[in-house]
Amino acid sequence: MSVETHYLAVFTSDKTGPKWRAWRAMSEAEQAETARRGVAAVAAWEEAHRDSIVFQGGPLGPTKRIGDDGAVTDMVNLLTVFMVVRADSHEAAARLFENHPHMSIFVCDGVEVMPVLG
């Protein structure tokens, strides 16, 4: 028997990768149309999975890192969007994101899914 638990899902996107290069190559009109379709598809995905969404999360902005030496630096990472979902298993939580619009329409290239412990 599995126990439902919460999972953090973090969408990733290589800002130097092929999906971003293709996005930047689009005209403003093409980007706007893709965004329109993507936003509608994300809303439909969220509606279809509303019982699994614990915290909707959202896009992540620029990153600052503080090292163990106390130095604060600007950095770029792959973290793009996050949310918290509930599922019966780690596998089930990951499978929620198959064909998600952030990957099939927008520029994300994966979703990292991990249990929230404690």
Automatic annotation (TrEMBL):
<protein>
    <recommendedName>
        <fullName>YCII-related domain-containing protein</fullName>
    </recommendedName>
</protein>
